């Protein structure tokens, strides 16, 4: 919340009735400021105070939702300028541009690549999310047919690209339920384009003439019309100026609380480059600093995959390790004779170990112990992967109800816990020290037989 506890306190009833669970209104205000309480807990806040608090507590950069269903894309909603301060919330959406004058083979190729480019890494699905459909016909019926055709091929979130309000309205008449981004309202077409976006209740992008003053004029006009979901294109197509604007917009929204700039941005990397390599580097620049959506002219895997990884790294919380849920994971249809392996819940470890077991084609039960996201060695050193703890979890998780043997394989890096674990489980159990490296698991599982 942007307000201090004292500022919030001034808006509260100051009766200290305690119904909110806090002993005084001041204590409640402090909790609200720290994000530890909800305003709704106080039944006596005036409507006016609610309005002020709601406005003040809104994120400095609006979260804009584009698309529906499986391809609902959220952009913006960022609360910090630097990733190490907290975390970035909504990953930059990656879009592919398709023009209405492209031939069928080109369109089919782009749609196929769009669908095929889906990778899972550490439990996160990485894929492009959006298609920017650019009109080249200036003919409402032709563009409408083009948009309908693409909609029949994919559920992707859409950006409708045309400066012509009539063309846009024709497309929106068929695409409105997909909640596409209307690109774009300009100073020239605003009086006609904005009411159309309003009529179809879709998020809207503004395209400026290259200056932030015009961006603010455009967004202020839309805000007066009660538009909330706005995306900014500064209109700049040279990398240096576009980058400077991107940083200035983020700073102005977060530090100066400049509401007219408190919206996510869209970057047409395809219009700033002369090759896919260049586009990729430009896209990477704006994934790092602070693009809401980047548009590419094509989705070649060898260019897009590095962008996915970069995005994954930037949009994860640096203060919270990624974790897998603790539990018992069956791999390759295990039965009562299959080995039991135990590991930590650091996501990278889990996905490497489960991947190796899977590719060994040997059935196994993989027990994931909660180590608060620490790797095996770190967890062991921190006392979170002790023999006592692992033994207690093995008993509790029920894995030995699934097998008729009494063997458990522990990671080689945790060999030191084997004695303590045997003690915890009982002498009838057989603790086996597995390989140190997951890459050795296939070889190990080929010869290992649980007893
Ligand atoms: Fe104050 Fe409202 Fe809490 Fe009562 S319920 S103590 S009025 S904040």
Q: In short, what is this structure?
A:
The protein is of the alpha/beta class. The protein has 16 helices and 17 strands.
Give the SSE layout:
Layout (H helix, E strand, L loop, with lengths): L4 H7 L13 H9 L13 H11 L5 E4 L6 E4 L16 E7 L4 H13 L2 E3 L2 E3 L3 E5 L5 H14 L3 E5 L3 H11 L5 E5 L4 H10 L4 E4 L4 H13 L5 E4 L5 H16 L11 E3 L7 H13 L4 E4 L4 H14 L12 E5 L8 E5 L2 H14 L3 E6 L6 H6 L5 H11 L9 E4 L7 H8 L4 E4 L7 H7 L4
Parallel strand pairs: 3-6, 3-12, 6-7, 7-8, 8-9, 9-10, 11-12, 14-15, 16-17
Antiparallel strand pairs: 1-2, 4-5, 13-15
This protein binds iron/sulfur cluster.
The site of iron/sulfur cluster has 13 residues, from α2.
Give a description of the structure.
By secondary structure, this protein is of the alpha/beta class. It contains 16 helices and 17 strands. It is globular. The mean pLDDT is 93. Bound molecules: iron/sulfur cluster. The site of iron/sulfur cluster has 13 residues, from helix 2.
Descriptive key words:
451 residues, alpha/beta, eight-stranded parallel beta sheet, 17 strands, 17% strand, binds iron/sulfur cluster
Order the strands across the largest sheet as they lie in space.
10-9-8-7-6-3-12-11
Overall mean confidence score, pLDDT: 93
Span between N and C termini?
Answer: 58 Å
Tell me which ligands are bound.
iron/sulfur cluster
In terms of per-residue confidence, which ranges show pLDDT below 50 for 5 or more consecutive residues?
none
Oligomer: single chain
Q: How many helices?
A: 16
Q: Structural class of the secondary structure composition?
A: alpha/beta
Outline type: globular
Biggest sheet features: 8 strands, parallel
**Can you give the helix content as a percent range?**
25-40%
Please report the total strand number as a whole number: 17
Beta content comes to: 15-25%
Report the C-alpha radius of gyration, rounded.
27 Å
């Amino acid at each position: 919340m942007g307000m201090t506890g004292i500022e919030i306190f001034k808006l509260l009833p100051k009766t200290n009735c305690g119904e909110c669970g806090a002993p005084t209104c001041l204590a409640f205000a402090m909790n609200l400021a720290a994000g530890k309480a909800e305003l709704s807990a106080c039944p006596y806040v005036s409507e006016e105070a609610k309005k002020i608090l709601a406005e003040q507590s809104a994120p400095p950069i609006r979260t804009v939702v584009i698309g529906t269903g499986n391809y609902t894309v959220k952009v913006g909603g960022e609360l910090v300028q630097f990733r190490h301060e907290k975390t970035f919330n909504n990953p930059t959406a990656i879009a592919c541009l398709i023009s209405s004058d492209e031939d069928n083979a080109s369109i089919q190729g782009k749609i196929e690549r769009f669908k095929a480019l889906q990778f899972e890494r550490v439990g996160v699905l990485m894929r492009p999310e959006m298609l920017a459909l650019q009109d080249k016909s200036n003919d409402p019926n032709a563009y409408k047919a083009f948009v309908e055709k693409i909609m029949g091929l994919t559920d992707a979130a859409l950006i409708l690209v045309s400066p012509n309000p009539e063309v846009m309205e024709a497309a929106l008449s068929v695409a409105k339920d997909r909640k596409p981004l209307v690109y774009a309202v300009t100073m020239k077409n605003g009086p006609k384009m904005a009411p159309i976006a309003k009529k179809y209740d879709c998020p809207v992008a503004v395209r400026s003439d290259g200056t932030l003053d015009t961006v603010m004029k455009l967004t202020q006009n839309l805000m007066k019309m009660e538009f909330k979901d706005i995306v900014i294109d500064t209109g700049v197509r040279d990398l240096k100026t576009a980058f400077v604007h991107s940083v200035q917009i983020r700073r102005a929204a977060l530090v100066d609380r400049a509401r007219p700039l408190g919206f996510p941005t869209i970057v047409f990397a395809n219009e700033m480059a002369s090759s896919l390599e260049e586009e990729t580097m430009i896209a990477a620049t704006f994934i790092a600093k602070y693009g809401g959506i980047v548009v590419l002219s094509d989705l070649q895997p060898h260019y897009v995959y590095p962008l996915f990884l970069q995005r994954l790294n930037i949009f994860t919380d640096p203060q919270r390790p990624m974790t897998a849920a603790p539990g018992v994971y069956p791999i390759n249809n295990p039965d009562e004779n299959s080995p039991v392996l135990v590991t930590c819940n650091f996501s990278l470890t889990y996905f490497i170990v489960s991947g190796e077991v899977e590719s060994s084609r040997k059935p196994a039960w993989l027990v994931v112990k909660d180590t608060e996201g620490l790797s095996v060695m770190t967890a062991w050193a921190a006392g979170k992967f002790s023999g006592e703890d692992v033994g207690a979890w093995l008993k509790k998780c029920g894995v030995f109800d699934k097998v008729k043997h009494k063997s458990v394989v522990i990671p080689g890096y945790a060999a030191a816990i084997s004695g303590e674990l045997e003690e915890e489980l009982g002498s009838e159990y057989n603790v086996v020290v597995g390989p140190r490296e997951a890459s050795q698991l296939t070889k190990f599982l080929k010869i290992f037989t649980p007893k």
